[in-house]
Structures are given as structure tokens and as C-alpha cells.
């Protein structure tokens, strides 16, 4: 009996958007209007690439970025939840699927000593160039019209589950914990026995309830959370059953 926990990162594990938090490193803690207005829907990764160039051009170094990123607060109850999962790793496989990047997630999880809780992190690859600029790339290519062009979370989840099956690992239940519009695609992939846990008051919860109202509800069960303690209570029930 093993459960798969799938986490989004921004506004789910941490209580902020890691990509917008980095702007605190910019001169006067803001971006010029031209740069801010250059974002085009579905092309967030390219936009962040330009933000990182701007920071590099303004002499923002890796250590300053790291210091800033590790001040992001975790969502209410999340430290307790991740501690609980860490103590019960024999029951839970745990992955992150996020539109952030490897550098930010790595810094934040390691600073809080949570990196061992997660078996794999699927996010946009990032690295510092030889000139000290942070660069970010698309996670993968896909053909899903619903998702931003750099990441379809359904594809990531499906490929992960397929790979685990090849290794002889199947899960009693998949629990998907997220908040954003790009979490709807993987939630619609979940089966009847699985559970989606959208964060209360965020886009994912609204989109799931819109589907229910238009009589095309998701297959899985839905349990809304406002604190990660709600998630922990559910997991405790799961492992008691």
C-alpha cells in the first residue's frame, strides 16, 4: 500500500510565487515597465529569462538571489505536513510538478531541510552561466492546447506513473495538491479513486467548481484545503484505513 503525493510549488508549498519574489533583488525592488509589460500569455519562461538578464545586468549575484529566495514563507501548516510525510516515507512517494525552476526550488527545500521528502522534482531547468547570469529553459515540449508551452503537468504525471509501473510500483491512490489554473489539466487525468486537493479561494478550486456546474465534473474526489494541516488530517485518515 503506497500513496503518491503530487505537489505544485508556488502558492502551494510556499505561500508566494517564487518568480515574482525574485524581483525583490531588482533595483528599487521593481522591474521597468517595458520589461513588466513584455509578458505574453503562455510564455512565462521566456519572460522570466528576460527578468534574469535584467537582474544580471544590474549586478545581482547568485548569493544575493539565494538569500532573498530562502526568506519566502511556507504556506500555513506546510512545515508540519512535510515533516509528517518525511516521517512516513515508507507509505508516501512524493513529487513536485512546478512551473518554477530547479535553482529556486532546490535552494528553498535545502534551506529548510525538506529536499529528502521529495523523490523527484519536475520543473524548468535553470543554471547560472559562466558570466553569473541565471538562465532558465523549458521543461519539455508537448501538444496540449490547455497548458503553457513549456509544461503540461498531465504529461509529467502520466509519464511518471507509467515509469513507476514499469518498475513494479503502483499506487493505491494519487493525491494532487495545487492551486493554479495549470493544475487543472493533471487533475482531469486523475481516476475515480484519486483525490484532488485545490487550495481554497485559488484558481484551481474555481475551475473545478465551474466544471461541476457545467455538468462535466472531474472524475476524482475533491477536498479543498486552506491550511496544510487539512491535508495532513486527510493523510492520517488514509494511513489508518
Automatic annotation (TrEMBL):
The active site is at 8 (nucleophile), 10 (proton donor). Substrate binds at residues 19, 99. InterPro entries: HAD-like_sf, HAD_hydro_PyrdxlP_Pase-like, HAD_sf, Pase_PHOSPHO-typ. Its cofactor is Mg(2+). Keywords: Hydrolase, Magnesium, Metal-binding. Belongs to the HAD-like hydrolase superfamily. PHOSPHO family. PANTHER family: PHOSPHATASE, ORPHAN 1, 2 (PTHR20889), PYRIDOXAL PHOSPHATE PHOSPHATASE PHOSPHO2 (PTHR20889:SF1). This is PHOP2 phosphatase. It comes from Pteruthius melanotis. The gene is Phospho2.
Amino acid at each position: 500500500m503506497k500513496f503518491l503525493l503530487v505537489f505544485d510549488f508556488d502558492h502551494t508549498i510556499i505561500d508566494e510565487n517564487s518568480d515574482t519574489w525574485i524581483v525583490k533583488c531588482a533595483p528599487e525592488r521593481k522591474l521597468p515597465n517595458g520589461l513588466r509589460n513584455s509578458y505574453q500569455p503562455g510564455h512565462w519562461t521566456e519572460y522570466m529569462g528576460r527578468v534574469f538578464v535584467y537582474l544580471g545586468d544590474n549586478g545581482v549575484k547568485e548569493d544575493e538571489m539565494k538569500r532573498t529566495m530562502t526568506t519566502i514563507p511556507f504556506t500555513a501548516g506546510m512545515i508540519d505536513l512535510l515533516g509528517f510525510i518525511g516521517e512516513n516515507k515508507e507509505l508516501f512517494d512524493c513529487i513536485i510538478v512546478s512551473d518554477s525552476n530547479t535553482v529556486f526550488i532546490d535552494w528553498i527545500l535545502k534551506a529548510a531541510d525538506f529536499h529528502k521528502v521529495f523523490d523527484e522534482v519536475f520543473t524548468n531547468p535553470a543554471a547560472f552561466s559562466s558570466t553569473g547570469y541565471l538562465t532558465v529553459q523549458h521543461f519539455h515540449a508537448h501538444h496540449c492546447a490547455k497548458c503553457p508551452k513549456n509544461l503540461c503537468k498531465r504529461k509529467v504525471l502520466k509519464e511518471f506513473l507509467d515509469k513507476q509501473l514499469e518498475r513494479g510500483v503502483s499506487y493505491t491512490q494519487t493525491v494532487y495538491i495545487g492551486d493554479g489554473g495549470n493544475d487543472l489539466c493533471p487533475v482531469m487525468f486523475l481516476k475515480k479513486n484519486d483525490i484532488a486537493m485545490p487550495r481554497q479561494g485559488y484558481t484551481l478550486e474555481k475551475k473545478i467548481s465551474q466544471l461541476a456546474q457545467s455538468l462535466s465534473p472531474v472524475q476524482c474526489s475533491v477536498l479543498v484545503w486552506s491550511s496544510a494541516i487539512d491535508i495532513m488530517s486527510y493523510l492520517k485518515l488514509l494511513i489508518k484505513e
